[in-house]
Amino acid sequence: EDRDLYPEDRDWKELKCRLKSFSSGSEFPPLESGTLRIYSNRICPYAERTRLVLAHKDIPNEIVNINLGKKPEWYLEKINPLGKVPAIQKDDKILYESAVCCDYLDQVYPGNKLTPDDPYQQAKDRILVEHFGQITTQYYKMLMGPPEGHAAAAESLNKLLVEFDKELQKRGNFFGGKAHSAIFGTFRNLQRNQTRYVCQ
Fold it and tell me: What global pTM score does this model have?
């Protein structure tokens, strides 16, 4: 039986929800009062950044996966007119853009702080987060771009990673020194947390 492949998943219905996404023509899933919801996509690295922050800070949440190829009408009308993920919602408060969502979560939920207290160091960390976006861009160019551009993308990716490695050596085990920092949210090392999935 298929569920034997996932012995760690006690709730088979939840597992199926993880694999589904809301598409065009679907209805808006009701949001329970006080529940923090993230609108996500299983393969989007930007959404995964915010899910990683939720996991690191152990914030209870529910996930609604969005089909980015056939976005639900309600998502564009009610949540994010740009149609991108992630977005987060709690009651009538809605935010989108991964960096904005991560900063907000770090300020509102103080446990396992991701940003340093020093404003200058915060700014330096944000610069590195922005630079990491270039790494993501080159990575996808190398994987999915025109074949004639693969070599150039790989070379750019390697240079960017070397620069990150140099910065890491200056700081210690983590970009935050001895502790995780906001840069932690740029990497795709998602752990299980207090998350439940919503499906149709």
Answer: 0.69
